[in-house]
Design goal:
334 residues, mainly alpha, 2 domains, two-stranded antiparallel ribbon
């Protein structure tokens, strides 16, 4: 048993999950910045018509895909030992993503430059700046939102790391340290590859899922009202199958063993816990809100309005909820 204090053990744990080299933070944070830019805002808070904003959002989405690919390439360089050819491919991917980032303010300049329609020009220029002055593009980039700024920061961090790597001041792949030891700890390649696939290829699975469901959403009768239950159910099943395929690919040669371990019959006690705990939570939460509303009603509204009815707080789950089980099952396999 360790005689160290809890504070010392907590600090040792934190040190054990930090990169072995300070320079590793550059490529790790830079790749993270690039990878998350697709989910950040790339348009002004005050925009023109909804149609113009939607078109701009779709355009930026496709321009961000090379930037996300650059972030995934940076992660690949972080965690997997790769030769000179692979590094060149990663560098080419980063340059392709950088060109996509530079294209955003240029397209924004052409998109929002029409002074004849003030509603369309939603990016504010510096005071007294001419439309074609050199400072317009940086001004547009700064006003587009945090997406461009985070992406630019990510490319800068990765570029600094690549320079340190060329000068011999940094090493690859990224490594962690043992708690209380200065010896870097290297991990199994298959485990690292699995983690990289689960991080970087999940967006690809979402895109494939959307492409497969696109013909259903383009059908004219789909926009008359809410989507039918079979459409949403089919989308969840397709997404679960694609995710399962991705998990099996990431598992490598152990995919059969993975399936056998995941789909064996569990003990009856575990089945009871798996069904009982959600049922108890589903009862306790409505019961809490019913008691809360009854107390408020008895204190402030006695005789003025009807008492809260238990039937409005408790309901049998809809059949559509069953279609959440396939994706959850596949996630447990992962």
């Amino acid at each position: 048993m360790s005689h160290h204090s809890p504070g010392y053990r907590a600090g040792a744990f934190v040190r054990s999950i930090l990169p072995a080299e300070p320079s590793h933070w550059l490529i790790l944070l830079g790749s993270t910045f690039l990878f998350i830019t697709l989910h950040l805002r790339w348009w002004p808070l005050t925009s023109g018509s909804a149609y113009t904003s939607a078109r701009w959002a779709i355009t930026v989405f496709y321009l961000c895909l090379p930037i996300v690919a650059a972030g995934a390439a940076g992660y690949y360089l972080c965690f997997l030992r790769c030769g000179r050819l692979a590094r060149r491919m990663v560098s080419a991917t980063l340059l392709f993503g950088l060109s996509s980032l530079l294209a955003v303010p240029i397209i924004a300049f052409l998109w929002f430059r029409d002074y004849s329609e003030p509603a369309r020009f939603v990016l504010h220029l510096p005071e007294g700046a001419h439309l074609w002055s050199p400072g317009v593009i940086p001004a547009l980039m700064s006003n587009l939102g945090p997406g461009g700024q985070i992406a630019a920061s990510g490319f800068a961090l990765v570029a600094i790391f690549m320079l340190l790597l060329l000068w011999g001041r940094a090493t690859l792949p990224l490594r962690l340290r043992h708690a209380g030891s200065a010896v870097p700890l290297e991990y199994d390649r298959q485990v690292v590859l699995f983690g990289w696939i689960m991080i970087c290829l999940l967006p690809v699975e979402r895109i494939l899922e959307g492409l497969l469901a696109l013909p259903l959403f383009l059908a004219p009768d789909m926009w008359a009202g809410h989507l039918p239950l079979w459409v949403t159910s089919l989308g969840k099943i397709v997404g679960a199958l694609l995710l399962l395929l991705l998990v099996l690919i990431a598992s490598g040669h152990d995919w059969r063993n993975t399936l056998q371990k995941s789909f064996h019959r569990p003990p009856i006690a575990y089945l009871g816990l798996g069904a009982g705990i959600p049922a108890v939570l589903a009862i306790l939460c409505p019961l809490f809100w019913l008691a809360h509303d009854r107390i408020l009603w008895s204190a402030h509204h006695w005789g003025n309005r009807p008492a809260p009815l238990p039937a409005t707080y408790f309901a049998i789950p809809a059949a559509a909820s069953l279609w959440y089980f396939p994706p959850a099952l596949v996630e447990e396999v992962a």
